[in-house]
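This part of the workshop introduces the protein records we will be handling. Getting from the letters to the C-alpha cells is the skill we practise here. An example says more than a description, so a record of this kind follows:
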Amino acid sequence: MKIEILNTGTELLLGNTLNTHGGWFGKELFGMGLRVARQATVPDGDAIREAFEEIVDRADVLLITGGLGPTSDDLTREIVAETLGIELVQDEAAMRTLEVFFSARNKVMAEANLKQALVPVGADVLPNPNGTAPGLYLPPRINGRSNCAIFLLPGPPRELYPMFHEEVKPRIKALAGVENISDVLELKFTGIGESDFHQSIDAELAAIDGLEYGYCARIGEVDLRLIGKPEVIRFARDLAVDRFSGGLISEDGSSLEATVVRLLAEKSLKLASAESCTGGLIGSRITDVPGSSEVYTHGWITYSNEAKASQIGVDEALIAAHGAVSEEVAIAMAEGARKESGADIAISVTGIAGPGGGSPEKPIGTAWIALAAEGCGTSARRFFHPRNRLDFKESVSQSALDMIRRHLMKI
C-alpha cells in the first residue's frame, strides 16, 4: 500500500514550528506492517491544491495534516472538496460538537468557527475531543478521481495523535489487510564508519534472502537497521555483532549515554566528570538519561587554567610545562575529579575546539581524554576531531562516553 503524507502550513516552512509528523507517522505505520512512501510539506494556499492533485492520483492512502481551523488560511477541506468535485454541507453532529466545546468553556463561538462543521458529502466525520477541528475521512468510493483513501487531520499533535489512534488506524488496517508484519532491529555502533560496514559485511548482508537493511550515520555513531523475519534478523545481527562487537552500543535503540548509565547502575559504580573543551556536554548527555542521579555525582566545567587548578587541584606548573591540552593535564584532571568527588570513575576532557588556538604540534581538533578508575589507575588517549566547533564538542563527548563504556565492559 502506497501511503503518502501532505503537511500543510506556512509556519512549517518558515521554521517557526518543527514538523515532527513524518517521523511519528512512520513509526506508527511501520508497527502496522506499512511504510510511508513519500512526505511533502507545503505552505497554505494554492500550493495545497497543486500537491493534492499530484498525490491523489498515485497514492492509495493520503494523510493531510493542518488547515482545518477557522481562519482564512485554513483551506484544506475546501480545496480537497473543490478538486474532487464534492459539495460541502453543514454536518449537524459536527455543529453540536462545536457548540458543546465552546459552551463547556463559557465562550461564545465565533462565526468563523462555523466552517469547521462543513463536511464533503459522503465523508465520515472523525471526532476531535481535544480541539474544535474535526477530522474527515473520504473513502475511495466517493473519490471520483482515483482510488485513494483521504484523511484530513488537524495539525497540532495533541489533537492529531489521539485521532490517528482512535479513528485513522482502524480504517487503514481494514484497507491494508496486512497479516504478516516484519520485525525490525536497530543496532547502534560507535567508532565505526559506514565505509567499515560496506567493506566488511555489506556484501554478506545483501546476500541474505528476505533481509532489508540500511545505515544511519551520525557524529561518532552508525545505526544498522535490520528488517525481516525473526530468523533472518538474528542471522544478520550475529554477523554484524561478531564483526564489530567492540563498537556495539545497544540492540534496543538505547543511546550511548543511556548505555553508560545502565552499565554504571548494573555495577553499582559512581561517575564524575571534569570538562574543559566540551563545556559540560558530557554531563548534560548523562543527566538526560532517567536514573542518572543514582550513578553521576559531580561535574566540573574547568574551562580556564585557574579553574583547573582551584577546583580539581591541577598543578599550575604542570599546565605551564605541558599546556592545558596535554596527556599530563588530562590525567591530572581525571585524578583530581575522582579525588574531589569520591567517585569510582572520573572522566576528563581537554582540547582545542577552534577556530583559533591551534599549532603544528597541537592542531585544531586535538583532544586528550583521561579516565581514572579505582583499582585500575589512569589511562589517557589522544583524539583528533577536526570539525567545526559544535561538532568537535559532540565528537569529543562521544569519544569520552565510549571510553567509559569500554572500561565498564571490561570489569
